[in-house]
Please model this.
Amino acid sequence: SLFWPDPTDPRHPQSKYDLLPYVNKQPILDRTTPIGSAGSCFAVEIAKVLQQRGFNYVVTESNDDPAHGVMLDTAVDDPTLARFSAAYGLLFNSPSFCQLAERAFGERDFSKFVIDANGQYVDPYREGVRFASVDAYLANYDAHVAAVREALLACEVFVVTLGLNECWQLLDGTFISRNPRANMYHMAKHRFLTVEQNVHYIQRFFDLVKARNPAFKLIISVSPVPLM
Model:
């Protein structure tokens, strides 16, 4: 091997453009493989491209259900495409992925509460999902948890995009998916996660799903877009 590929080397000419960063290919999906995604707005773009290119994108819950008071405010240029495998909204930090699996598989108790957002209501764990009323939120809760569980059990490949190392933790120890709204800063503590903490939360997310879905594989990406 060479420290740096040199196409002009007289004995072993090599170009870095002809080399790949692995020895043996390990393909993990084709267009028939059940695949899902979650994460920041970057994950919405991944979901869109997968569907446009004919991949088997798993959708277990309608992303919008205005008839039952559930709306998404995530921008999308084609309303026929799902933004998420289930309507969990945008997830920006690694604890939110861990909590996604914990809630889906009953590994942890979560409080049911919503925040008033100019006449509509938002779940701080589901950024970008709005409810017409508290009753709409409560009526959707169990069905949504079941849809997330179904998606995680169906997917053989799952793409996550991590968006923020900066996060906010509620007094009960859980993390909200993004930054607090103006009327809830008193409920949250501002934190920066270490590398080890991020690894821990993503590893726990993977382990919780893998224990129930042995075919589950995880692709981890990082969003290139800052918060503000």
